[in-house]
Write a structure and sequence with these properties.
alpha+beta; three-stranded antiparallel beta sheet; Ribosomal_bL35_sf; structural constituent of ribosome; 50S ribosomal protein L35; Ribosomal_bL35-like; ribosomal protein
């Protein structure tokens, strides 16, 4: 019984706060906004979305330092860009919702 009484009290408080002066009707302004999803900043710095291919691309790793002694052929394979695997695209979409 006390739960119903507290609910009735809260409804009357809402009605008292939301009275429209111009036409004397109770107006409820309920604002249902969806919270924004956050972009994973580490992923955003490393991956870029390619809309034509519907996939993501990134730079290859392994060329920042310690390259002396490696053959040019093996270093050339580490240069350039690569695309995301099909199994990773759905995970990347969750991490980058606005790309």
């Amino acid at each position: 019984m006390s739960m119903i009484g507290s609910l009735a009290n809260s409804i009357t408080k809402i009605n008292a706060k939301n009275i429209n002066i111009f036409n004397n009707k109770n107006v409820f302004h309920l604002d249902f906004r969806r919270t924004l999803m956050k972009t994973h900043k580490g992923t955003a710095k490393r991956w870029k979305y390619i809309s034509k291919l519907d996939t993501f691309k990134r730079g290859k790793s392994g060329r920042q330092h310690g390259n002396i002694g490696w053959s040019q052929r093996s270093l050339k394979t580490l240069s350039g860009r690569t695309y995301a695997d099909k199994t990773h695209v759905s995970k990347l979409r969750k991490l980058l919702p606005y790309n």
